[in-house]
Amino acid sequence: MIKDFRNKLCVITGGSSGIGLAVAEELARRGARLLLVARGAEQLEKAAASLRALGAAEVQTISVDVASDEDVARLPAAIQAMGPAADVVINSAGIVSGGLLHELPMHEWRRLHEINVLGVVRVLNAVVPAMLARSARGEGGGHIVNIASGAGLVGFTGLGGYVATKAAVVGFTESLRSELAAAGIGVTAVCPGFVQTPIASKVQLFGRMDTPRTQAFIQNWFKTNNLQAETVAKRTLDGIRRNRAIVVVGRDAVSGYWTKRVAPWLLDRFLRQSARPLTAKKKAA
After folding, report:
1. Of 162, 172, 222, 257, which is the active-site residue?
2. Of 52, 123, 157, 276, which has the fewest Cβ atoms less than 10 A away?
3. Calculated CA dihedral for residues 78, 84, 90, 96, nearest 10 degrees
4. What DSSP letter does each residue of 153-213 carry, written as one string?
5. ∠ at Cα 224 (218, 227), nearest 5°?
6. CB 8 within 8 A of CB 46
7. Mean pLDDT for the chain?
8. pLDDT in tens, 23-50
């Protein structure tokens, strides 16, 4: 288990904003060495400057789209330029969109899976071999964190496409944890509820959910949950230190997680009631 992050090489996808940046900031305060991975070069450099000011031992950036095989193939060389292998990998890149089953276009289903699921797989395929090789030399394993979602534990209405991707990440992470345990590589799924990050204002809606009323409903959900990215970041690092299999963060995620186990009928009733404003027919203009 990693107890001290000082000088540890940490690779963070989605590291220029949201949860990824918040985790990077916590690691920077602890003197870690950071490789930020995101699409926008300008935003990456801005984030890197702020992280250096926070005390990071080193910050490098690489512009990569996790949905691109060719882009992700450049990751191993970027890591090797900083050290033999990553000590910590944080998969935080992801997108959110909403729509009922028959109103969410197939191209959006594919986009969600390419980024949220296959993006995680691509990154790990690129970074894990070096971690395994280091472990085989007796030089330590490392830790992998996949940022999933409370939606990967509870099927929220109108988010079927997103829920499917995050449930896949939770299951994949559980499988990977047992697969890599013998190599001394810890694996954790972090499942936050609705977090107040820039992604909250970028939720793309389709079909009858694409209304100001639904958008306001979703924004209010983010607001009332009052979960900050900084809280998720601190809980993530604690999960690494304790080698937790799963970390559930936020009032909505925690209540959903435990209600599903203790009183599933109650959760079912709540989800049915919450579905009404989201599934109402779209009024004609």
Report:
1. 162
2. 276
3. 30
4. TS--TT-HHHHHHHHHHHHHHHHHHHHHGGGTEEEEEEEE-SEESGGGGG-EE-GGG-SHH
5. 100
6. no
7. 93
8. 999 999 999 999 999 999 999 999 999 9
Write the single-letter amino acid at 99.
G
Taking each helix axis as running N to C, give the angle between helix 264-279 and helix 251-262, from 0 to 180 degrees, rounded to the nearest 10.
130
Instruction: Tell me the two tokens of residue 146.
Output: 């996949």
Alpha carbons 38 and 61: distance in angstroms, whole number: 8
Q: How far apart are CA 169 and CA 116, in angstroms?
A: 8
Answer for the pair 16, 40: CB distance below 8 angstroms, yes or no. yes
Task: Write the single-letter amino acid at 47.
Answer: A
Residue 162 bears catalytic tag = yes
Angle at 192 between CA 144 and CA 230, to 5 degrees: 85
- The pTM score is 0.93
Distance CA(153)–CA(192), nearest Å, equals: 10
Q: Which are the contacts of 184, defined by CB distance < 8 A and separation ≥ 6?
A: 135, 140, 141, 142
User: What pLDDT, in 10s, does the model give residues 159-189?
Assistant: 999 999 999 999 999 999 999 999 999 999 9
Q: Taking each helix axis as running N to C, give the angle between helix 212-225 and helix 264-279, from 0 to 180 degrees, rounded to the nearest 10.
A: 140
